[in-house]
Amino acid sequence: MKRITVKTPLKKDYDVVITKGFDELAAEIDRLKLSGRKCMIVSDDNVSPIYMNELRSVLAKCDIDCIEYSFKAGEESKTKETVDSILDIMVEKSFKRSDICLALGGGVTGDMAGFAASQYHRGIVFVQVPTSLLAMSDSSVGGKTGVDYKGVKNVLGAFYFPDLVYMNTATLATLDDRQFYNGFAEAMKHGIIKDEHFYEWLIESMYEICDREPDTLEEMLYRSVNIKRMVVEKDPLETGERALLNFGHTLGHAIESDRMGVLLHGECVALGMVAAAYISYKKEMISMEEYLELRDMLVPFNLPITVDNIDIDKIIETVTKDKKQDNTGLKFILLKKIGKAVIDRSVTEDEMRAALKEIEYTDDIE
Ligand SMILES: NC(=O)c1ccc[n+]([C@@H]2O[C@H](COP(=O)([O-])OP(=O)(O)OC[C@H]3O[C@@H](n4cnc5c(N)ncnc54)[C@H](O)[C@@H]3O)[C@@H](O)[C@H]2O)c1
Ligand SMILES: [Zn+2]
């Protein structure tokens, strides 16, 4: 079992516990003095049938009365309406401010349950039990919650920090391969932006990671979450350095909306990381060898490094309209070397276009 304490700008810090079962959850609930309260468990209809009963029986030991709510799995459910359904139940069951809202599932579940928790009585106790690798390596830590609205991703939301994040890595056994590597992309990103030793360790541990070897996954998450902790502690509300976590996301998000429903978020981030590394190489910030290594090392982790049928003009247009473009110019995250990312405001449209051409799949033989 591993524990990381994350400091927040509010007076409460929270722990991230990384372990291989649900056995230690009761002790964590005790530590937070949450026994005897009511708990709303939010989950989706893939995760709930697999883990709800086990979780309920652990919480029953803490004398916690559980109310379940499960929604149809998928990003399409990440709406205000689903949050309303969660809030309706809390009102109906007379939840108090001291009661608990618990997210059991991937990032969609965590973002919505967290948003509901932030709204109810101006904030009730919030526990994250992430079950996807993306939620463990990224979304459950850092306090961003929210929903999509009118076709815009995450446009409604709040910073709301959890009281506890409990990662049971055994749940990763039921995650399908594509979802697993999707989450891996964010762990890899953490190494690339901040810690070359972690990046090298990920490459060395490639076989164990792909085999989902339990001790390796625990170590990987410990190191990945620790990097995210460092960054979000320094800049909890994203006014500066937290933007480094957007490495691969500027072009990645735009590719994601262009190929909506075809490519997963982590896959688009992988493509965005290749593009950003290419721009870094062209600006002579990293060498060609570093660029090629970074690109090729995504392949054994089943992440794409090229993409077909992209509309480059549309992607550029999306990026220039993107929220990361504030009044000081487009904020792009580039690399000084593997393990050191920097914020750059000098990336031109032509440079982005060249990077998109670089990752565009073409079977033309010249
Ligand atoms: N809050 C943040 O900081 C942050 C950061 C990154 C991403 N996100 C958000 O996270 C969401 C993506 O998260 P995600 O990829 O986890 O999506 P998700 O929650 O939809 O989960 C992906 C799929 O895996 C299934 N699943 C989850 N755990 C499982 C398990 N253990 N066994 C079997 N199936 C399982 C889910 O039912 C779903 O079908 C997006 O909405 C994104 O905006 C938030
Ligand atoms: Zn991401």
Account of the protein in words:
This protein has 366 residues and is an alpha/beta fold. The protein has two domains: 2-174, Rossmann fold (3-Layer(aba) Sandwich); 185-359, Dehydroquinate synthase-like, alpha domain, CATH 1.20.1090.10. The protein has 14 helices and 13 strands. The protein has helices at residues 25-31, 48-61, 80-92, 107-119, 133-139, 177-194, 196-204, 206-210, 214-234, 249-258, 265-282, 288-296, 312-321, 349-359; strands at residues 2-6, 14-19, 38-44, 65-71, 100-105, 125-130, 144-149, 152-159, 164-168, 325-326, 329-330, 332-337, 340-344. The strands form four sheets. It has a seven-stranded mixed beta sheet, sandwiched between helices. A two-stranded antiparallel sheet has the order 7-8. The protein has a two-stranded antiparallel sheet with strand order 10-11. A hairpin with a 7-residue loop joins strand 1 (2-6) and strand 2 (14-19). Helix 10 crosses helix 11 (265-282) and helix 10 (249-258) crosses helix 13. The radius of gyration is 20 Å and the shape is globular. 46% of the residues are buried. Bound molecules: nicotinamide-adenine-dinucleotide and zinc ion. Nicotinamide-adenine-dinucleotide (NAD) binds next to helix 4, helix 5 and helix 6.
